Amino acid sequence: MTTLEAIETGTQTLMQNIGRRITEVLMGAQVPEAVGVCRECESPLRQVDLHRSRSITGIFGDYDWSRPYMVCPKGHGSEAPQDRVLKRGAGQVSPKLAAILAR
Ligand SMILES: [Zn+2]
């Protein structure tokens, strides 16, 4: 026999783990059709890392994934085009979690 608290805690942990894993897999599957261009000079971006690691906190916990990382050949900075597709935002918190926290 167990308590309701233990049942809810176990179920919550299970759902968090499943949600986190599904989110990470789907984030990794969002591949931009094109490499992308620099937002400032529109030069094609040059890939410098195929698997740049990234972590972000979302409603299912901490998501870890890797994605291609690019730089502007004219020195206007860098970006991961996959982040733009995901509309991940600039912070360490997912847009969904950020909206919940703002309430
Ligand atoms: Zn540029």
Helix percentage:
25-40%
For the secondary structure, the number of strands is 3
**Could you state the order of secondary-structure elements as H and E?**
HEEEHH
Radius of gyration from CA coordinates? 18 Å
Shape: elongated
Q: How many structural domains?
A: 1
Strand order of the largest sheet: 1-2-3
How large a portion of the residues is in β-strands, by DSSP E? Answer: 25-35%
Report the mean per-residue pLDDT as an integer.
90
Q: What distance separates the N and C termini?
A: 38 Å
What does this structure look like?
The protein has one domain. Helix content is 39%, strand content 25%. It is built from 3 helices and 3 strands, in the order αβββαα. It has helices spanning 4-29, 81-86, 95-102, and strands spanning 46-58, 61-71, 78-79. It has a 3-stranded antiparallel sheet with strand order 1-2-3, sandwiched between helices. The longest helix has 26 residues, at 4-29. The protein is elongated. The relative contact order is 0.18. It binds zinc ion. Residues 38, 40-41, 43, 72, 74, 76 line the site of zinc ion.
Strand and helix map with partners:
Elements: H1 4-29, E1 46-58, E2 61-71, E3 78-79, H2 81-86, H3 95-102
Antiparallel strand pairs: 1-2, 2-3
The structure holds zinc ion (ZN).
Structural key phrases:
103 residues; alpha+beta; 39% helix; 25% strand; binds zinc ion
